[in-house]
Design a protein that fits this description.
The complex is a heterodimer of chains A (about 270) and B (about 280).
Chain A (H helix, E strand, L loop, with lengths): L8 H32 L10 H10 L1 H35 L1 H15 L7 H8 L4 H25 L3 H9 L4 H37 L7 H10 L3 H29 L12
Chain B lengths: L6 E10 L4 E11 L4 E5 L6 H8 L7 E6 L2 E2 H6 L3 E4 L11 H11 L4 H14 L15 H13 L5 E5 L7 H18 L2 E6 L2 H7 L2 E6 L4 E7 L14 H16 L10 H11 L1
Parallel strand pairs in B: 3-8, 3-9, 6-7, 7-8
Antiparallel strand pairs in B: 1-2, 1-4, 4-5, 9-10
Helix pairs in contact in B: 3-4, 3-5, 4-5, 7-8
The chains are: A mainly alpha (about 270), B alpha/beta (about 280).
Chain lengths: ~270, ~280
């Protein structure tokens, strides 16, 4: 028997392009439809401006918008790191001490279903309306539960035979965690971490809506919309979207790099 | 003086739960070094439980389990056995080579020694050149060979196998049966092999332990006096057919199954279709 042949780079690139072609087509068509539709049907500017004008506004106000975007991203990222970090630590503890996990899990799952964003005015009150910390707090709490629930599911979804195998090597609980449970939990952890990027951005921006620093993106959007400057509001939303997508994509990239040897990440070589 | 047994079970019983479902009752069994012993019996006869008791993965309710001259618990801590399950239980994030070297890592072997042993094991299971692949790139039969290589990597005196070929197709299974015999001869390990297949048990073993269910007991032991080394022609010998018949009779006498057939699985299918 010979080792299986490796895929050539050229073939991989070709297949990747073919995979992306339909999505790319939809993107181009969508933009064209927006631009031409708004202009052709004569839609009022304050209802929906053409994309080209949003882009122009974004460019003209790039300094304010990007600094606001950076400010809000820091709020989101701070909350994300705190929330996800705490969730991973909590998941490890609950997986290690199962009775604790069984006692607390129902509450974690219930909390996961609570619209935590509703607490934003409360955290603003607790940590200070103008502070970044109040937005980080809401982002952290929003991120916490899905990451906790996912990670814990991953840590406990190890096949019993894997545990038996490790015990046959006289492995202790710690070694089973390090060599089996944690690697097994990675796909679950990352799906939680990806969802959390979106939640953290929502937490930070909506937290801003309920009152925040003048230099935040949420306040920019609210204020512009309040004075019927919808072009700027749209531009700020565009900036928020770009930051959100980049945030998500960077975690997705980290996932791909970390999990390149998992069967779900790459197809089976037949 | 006869050599010290590798496995010695005395009056071993296992009950599950407070209600006391008796999985195993008063099992006495000794395995001499170099033996290949199959445990065969219908579902619920406790053969897999018995295997796990030998490996100290399940504690018996009563009785003594001595492995390599020491209590089973100590033998596990000393890594006196390797184990293979029905599933290969390979870790997807590790390469084939790193899967095989996992027990060696845990035993603190250095990199050079590990690499040398892994190469040796890959040759033994005829997977030379596959060390850098990941398990999910291999077929089921190849995965199971990796699992065998991993179990034998640290040269344990005892190899425990829990229906290792049960999930494979018939042709792969027969090929791996031949390979296992070759590996067994090369390694000199003692093997405890749990199976559902009468033909497989007779073909591989030096002794077949026939078990009966509810409660799990030893219904009889059949010495397999087929000449070694065995090969494809072994299955065609009249003696092979006799031994298969003998094992089947004992299974039936123990309440294993009621109808004629080659393997218990077939019997179970027949029984299910009848419902």
């Amino acid at each position: 028997m010979l080792p299986l042949p490796r895929d050539t780079l050229a073939r991989r690139v070709g297949r990747r392009l073919a995979d992306w072609a339909p999505a790319l087509g939809v993107f181009v068509l969508g933009i064209a439809a927006w631009e031409l539709g708004v202009r052709g049907l004569g839609v009022q500017r304050f209802l929906l401006p053409p994309l080209s004008e949003i882009l122009r506004t974004t460019w003209e106000q790039r300094d304010t918008l990007w600094s606001a975007g950076w400010f809000t991203f820091q709020e989101a990222l701070g909350g994300y790191v705190i929330g996800c970090g705490a969730a991973v630590v909590a998941a490890l503890a609950l997986a290690r001490w199962r009775p604790l996990g069984r006692a607390l899990m129902p509450y974690a799952i219930a909390a996961n279903a609570v619209p935590i964003i509703a607490f934003a005015p409360i955290t603003n009150n607790w940590f200070g309306v103008l502070n970044m910390e109040s937005k980080m707090a809401i982002a952290a709490v929003i991120c916490f539960f899905p990451v906790l629930v996912n990670t814990l599911r991953g840590l406990t979804s190890v096949r019993p035979a894997s545990i038996e195998l490790m015990r046959s090597y006289a492995a202790g609980e710690l070694e089973i965690f390090r060599r089996v449970r944690i690697p097994t939990s990675l796909p679950f952890l990352f799906s939680g971490l990806k969802v959390a990027t979106v939640l953290a951005m929502i937490g930070a921006i909506v937290g801003d809506y309920f009152g925040g620093s003048q230099s935040s993106l949420g306040i920019q959007i609210r204020r512009s919309a309040g004075i019927f400057n919808f072009q700027t509001a749209w531009a700020a939303i565009l900036v928020a979207s770009v930051i959100g997508i980049l945030f998500y994509a960077s975690v997705a990239l980290a996932e791909r790099v970390t999990m390149r040897y998992f069967p779900s990440a790459r197809g089976r070589v037949d | 003086m006869s050599p010290e047994p590798v496995v010695s079970l005395r009056q071993v019983s296992k009950e599950f739960g407070q209600g006391g479902v008796v999985a195993l009752q008063d099992i006495d069994l000794e395995l001499a070094p170099g033996e290949f012993v199959s445990l065969i019996g219908p579902s619920g006869c406790g053969k897999s439980t018995l295997l796990r008791i030998i490996g100290d993965l399940i504690e018996p309710t009563r009785g003594d389990v001595v492995v390599n001259g020491k209590p089973a618990h100590q033998a596990r801590l000393d890594r006196d056995y390797g184990i293979v399950f029905q599933d290969a239980v390979l870790f997807d994030w590790r390469t084939v080579a790193k899967n095989i070297s996992l027990p060696l890592e845990m035993m603190g072997w250095n990199r050079g020694k590990r690499a040398e042993r892994v190469r040796e094991m890959l040759d033994l299971v005829e997977l030379t050149g596959f060390g850098d692949h990941h398990p999910w790139q291999l077929s089921g039969g190849m995965q199971q060979r990796v699992a065998i290589a991993r179990a034998l990597a640290f040269h344990p005196p005892l190899l425990l196998m829990d229906e290792p070929f049960g999930a494979l197709d018939e042709m792969t299974r027969e090929r791996l049966n031949l390979e296992l015999l070759r590996i067994w001869e090369a390694s000199g390990s003692t093997v405890v092999f749990v199976t559902h297949s009468i033909a497989e048990a007779v073909f591989l073993s030096t002794r077949v332990v026939v078990m009966s269910p509810r409660p799990g007991r030893i219904a009889g032991i059949v010495d397999i006096d087929l000449p070694q080394p065995r090969g494809i022609e072994t299955r065609e010998q009249p003696r092979f057919a006799e031994l298969v018949r003998d094992v089947r009779r004992r299974l039936r006498a123990g309440g294993g199954f009621e109808q004629e057939g080659d393997t218990l699985e077939e019997e179970l299918i027949v029984a299910e279709e009848g419902l």
